[in-house]
User: Fold this.
Amino acid sequence: MSKENQHFEISKHKDYLYVIKENISLVHPVYTNDPLNIYLILGSHTALLLDTGCGLSPLKPLIDNLVGKKKLLVFNTHYHWDHPLGNAEFGEVYIHEDEVDLVSKPYDVSFLKDSPNEIVKIYAEKDFLIPPAKLIKSLKDGDIFDIGEIEVKVMHCPGHSPGSICLLTSNGELFTSDVAYYGDQFLPNRNKFSQVLNSLLKLINLCEKQKIGELYPSHRNYPCDMTLLTDLYKGIKNIENLWDHKKSFDFFEAWLIDDESGKFRFFISKT
Ligand SMILES: [Zn+2]
Assistant:
C-alpha cells in the first residue's frame, strides 16, 4: 500500500461519487471532527474535487488515478485550514469570491505549533506557512458547472465562514460543507448567528421544496438527511437558553456550550 493510501481512506459511494477521508485529529487532538470528507464527483467529461484537505500527504496522485483523462475542477468549500492546504498540488482552485484573498497567500498554521502530535513536523518543515495554489478563481452564488450528465450549482451559505459554499447536484445530492454536520461546531460571534440561521433556513427550504434527502457534510457521517439541518437549527436557536452554562475554551478563543441533544458541541467565537 502506498504512503498516501495509508493517510487517506478512499471509498466509492456511488458510480460517480468517491469520498476521500482524512483524520484531522492527527494534527491536533483538539480537533475531534474525524474524518474530514473530501468528495470527488465524476461527470462524463469533467471531475469535481471538493476540498484538498490538510496538506499532509500527496493527494493529487490518488485523484489523478480516479479521474483518468477527464478534466479536473478543484473547489474549496471554505478557507479554514483543514480544507485548502493541499491546494498547491493543483494548478487552479476555485473558492467563493469572499475568500479568494485568504487562500491566495501562504497559509499560516503556526497556531498548530504546540501540537503534541508528531505529524506537525510536516508543517514545521515548511515553517508553518503552507503554499497556495498558483491560480485562485472565484465562485459566486448561483454559478452552475456542467461536468457532463451532472450539473453542479454553487450556493453561498455564509456563517461558519464568510464565503462558505454548499453544492447542489442535478442528481439531488446536497454537499453541505462545514455549514452542517454532526459534531463540534465552530460558530461566529453571537452577533452573526442570524447569518448562520439564515443559511440553514435557505438549505431547509431547498430540501423541502426539491425533496432533497441526501446530504453530504464535510465532516463525520454521510449521507445524512434533512434532520441534520433542523437539528442544527434548533441547537443554535437554543444557545441563548444555555448561555449561562458557557465555559471558556482558550485554544479556539471561544465559548464552549454543550448542546442538550448530545449531537453537537458549540464553539462560539469571542471576537
Ligand atoms: Zn472543517
